[in-house]
Design brief:
single chain, about 30 residues, mainly alpha, 1 helix, about 0% strand, rod-shaped
């Protein structure tokens, strides 16, 4: 169970970065 906490945090961080990257790309392409 102890290893589940850090893993979830890592996934959340990666998801946030992946979410922002495509959003920025889409914005630049739209411009």
């Amino acid at each position: 169970m102890a290893w589940t906490a850090p893993k979830i945090k890592e996934i959340t961080c990666g998801m946030e970065v992946t979410r922002y990257l495509p959003a920025d790309d889409d914005r630049q392409e739209s411009l």
